[in-house]
Design a protein that fits this description.
Helix content: 25-40%
Oligomer: single chain
Order of helices and strands: HHEEHEHEHEEHEEE
Bound molecules: S-adenosyl-L-homocysteine
Distance between the termini: 33 Å
Strand order of the largest sheet: 5-4-3-6-7-8-9
CATH architecture: 3-Layer(aba) Sandwich
Structural class: alpha/beta
Low-confidence stretches: none
Strand content: 25-35%
Largest sheet: 7 strands, mixed
CATH topology: Rossmann fold
Number of strands: 9
Radius of gyration: 16 Å
Number of helices: 6
Mean pLDDT: 96
Length: 215
């Protein structure tokens, strides 16, 4: 991770800056995480393209711009405890782990979880705690969290997750039907209610209930 970033990664980071991901800490974290380590051999040549890529089991590694936008929107601090729903490849998790104290991440596909764990181990990311389960339930034993990020589209705002936020906490979550227009929402929890902001249109794989029965 301390290696000099590849020219393709440096170009991608410049592109993200141009697209409006301006937080220097977020850009620096993204520059230190080699996206190539999160995709398989067939995707190596595309690893630093600014688009989602397949990671198997019908799932995708998010577009780098969206990862930057969501990470920026979370306003992370380095003492924070973060919950991520939808580990997938583990790419977003790795970036969060560079910016927060500890990241708890939940994935419903065991094979994806196992591959992500192996990547975290190889990259020496030791502040990530993984769980195979239904992220729609959150992680009640570890709640409350300073921040929550959902990387799959929920049919409606998941109140169960909002409950697991600390007062003043922030959750970023795509909301909307599968294969149709979804919006990225940022929820800030206050003692008396919550503030919801619309950060724009996005396209995510759906948040699916229950754990997957993978062979
Ligand atoms: N952040 C990931 C994006 C993965 S796509 C990355 O950068 O690679 C979204 C992931 O959410 C998929 O892996 C999918 O299996 C997972 N997912 C969908 N519904 C879920 C649920 N209820 N609980 C946990 N994970 C879920």
């Amino acid at each position: 991770m301390t290696d000099t970033p590849s020219p393709d990664l440096v170009r991608l980071i410049m592109e993200l800056r141009g697209q409006g991901v301006t937080d220097a800490r977020v850009l620096a974290a993204m520059e230190r995480v080699p996206r190539a380590a999160f995709v398989d051999e067939r995707q190596q040549a595309s690893a630093y393209e600014n688009r989602p890529l397949s990671i198997g089991l019908g799932q995708t590694i998010s577009q780098p711009f969206i990862v930057g936008l969501m990470t920026d929107a979370l306003k992370l601090g380095d003492r924070m405890k973060v919950l991520e729903i939808g580990t997938g490849s583990g790419y977003q998790t790795a970036i969060l782990s560079r910016l927060a104290l500890r990241v708890y991440t939940v994935e419903r596909h065991r094979p994806l979880m196992k591959m992500a764990e192996e990547r975290f181990r190889r990259l020496g990311l030791s502040n990530i705690v993984t769980r195979h389960g239904d992220g729609g339930e959150g992680w009640p034993e570890q709640a409350p969290f300073d921040r929550i990020i959902v990387t799959a589209a929920a049919p409606e705002l998941p109140e169960k997750l909002v409950e697991q936020l600390k007062p003043g906490g922030i959750m970023v979550c795509p909301v909307g039907p599968p294969d149709a227009s979804q919006v990225l929402l940022r929820v800030t929890k206050h003692d008396a209610g919550k503030e919801v902001e619309n950060l724009g249109f996005v396209a995510f794989v759906p948040l699916v209930q229950g754990v997957a029965r993978d062979v």
